[in-house]
Amino acid sequence: MSDAELVLRSTRVVTPEGSRPAAVAVADGRITAVLAYDADLPPGARLEDLGDDVLLPGLVDTHVHVNDPGRTHWEGFWTATRAAAAGGITTLVDMPLNSLPPTTTVDHLRTKQRVAADKAHVDVGFWGGALPDNVKDLRPLHDAGVFGFKAFLSPSGVEEFPHLDQERLAHSLAEIAGFGGLLVVHAEDPHHLDAAPRRGGPRYADFLASRPRGAEDSAIAALIDQARRLDARVHVLHLSSGDALPLIAAARAEGVRITVETCPHYLTLTAEEVPDGASEFKCCPPIRESANQDLLWQALADGTIDCVVTDHSPSTADLKTDDFATAWGGISGLQLSLAAVWTEARRRGHGLEDVVRWMSTRTAALVGLDHKGAIEAGRDADFAVLAPDDTFTVDPAALQHRNRVTAYAGRTLYGVVRSTWLRGERIAADGEFTAPKGRLLTRTP
Ligand SMILES: [Zn+2]
């Protein structure tokens, strides 16, 4: 057996080859070997016997709005990374907007890194932002280590982060493709949104009608055209419309470099069940009908959708008014994402291996974090220990999020995270946390 300081043993270890009884040896924060369950312990190694709890690679959530600095009363690095750790997430990548400043210049990136440095309970990376007027900043941000660039094709919800029209999208995308970068896109077509009925008020059906599937489908079609023309790499954020899936599958089949994510709320909540006035369920694009949700699950199963990320985007409770037109749009679910997805996945006959592929392996691959996202020798010893058959009922008061308004309140979910490990150290267990041990990550050149 190889040298190791620590061995974690479980009857169910989720590896890239499937789940099996195994002993995972760790030294210097990395996995050194995945051994037979009953392998002899190396001299001096400490054994952590997890029994029948499942050992998963720590989740990698590439879509989180931490909002720090500037809107730290909405969330913040301290609270977001504790919530992540409590939920089995060991790496998050922060979105460039809702913080002040937004991550749109190298100076702003440095500001955010300074703020995050001593608060990160898990590893933290950063997306940059592509705005109409910052094309000159994209290459320096890429060189400074952001994982890619986010753009909106329709208004973002905050005035300091304006969206790109098709001409500016082409300009930014050409620049990004020129240095081999990745553009991640909020894809709703503003012309479709303008043409949709906008009634406002507390009825969820009215809100849903104001953000039709066609707005997503049209924006994605245009994005595919630009990606094809420029041979650029693009990623569709938070896909909600199942009608866009055939477009995406066809584009990929002809070689367009496009990947797609969806979110726990689209996979587990439905329009039919959103109570009127309940704007904790408001996000853009919106949670749609259950028939649409079935299409998303089918696409996860057949690989058209690559991955699942939270799009955790909280605000203070006062902005979650009962008028869907003006309430803040964003779902708060960071700490609950694994349990929410697992609960619905198991009901639909999927295994934890699938959940790991969607929420860890493929998200790590999306941002090029080759040392994360799987339990195999050479990768970081980042783990979640999960009791998959245990249930809990979501009590907002028990969440680590700064603001505890959540669409999942009162739901009973499968999958209790017993502990979370970062580079071989247990950082969270039973609502207790160590001092922050997370590192700030940059893109691997
Ligand atoms: Zn988002």
Q: What would you note in describing this structure?
A:
One of its GO terms (molecular function) is allantoinase activity. Keywords: Hydrolase, Metal-binding, Zinc. Its cofactor is Zn(2+). Homotetramer. Its EC number is 3.5.2.5. There is one protein chain. The chain is α/β, with parallel strands linked by helices and 445 residues long. It folds into 2 domains: 88 residues, Urease, subunit C, domain 1; 309 residues, Metal-dependent hydrolases (TIM Barrel, Alpha-Beta Barrel). The chain has 12 helices and 18 strands. The strands form 3 sheets. Strands 1, 2, 3, 4, 5, 15, 16, 17 and 18 form a 9-stranded mixed beta sheet that branches. A 6-stranded parallel beta sheet has the order 9-10-11-12-13-14. It has a 3-stranded parallel beta sheet with strand order 6-7-8. A hairpin with a 2-residue loop joins strand 1 and strand 2. Helix 11 crosses helix 12. The longest helix has 18 residues. The chain is globular and about 70 Å long. The model has no long low-confidence stretch (mean pLDDT 96). The site of zinc ion has 5 residues, from loops. Zinc ion binds next to loops.
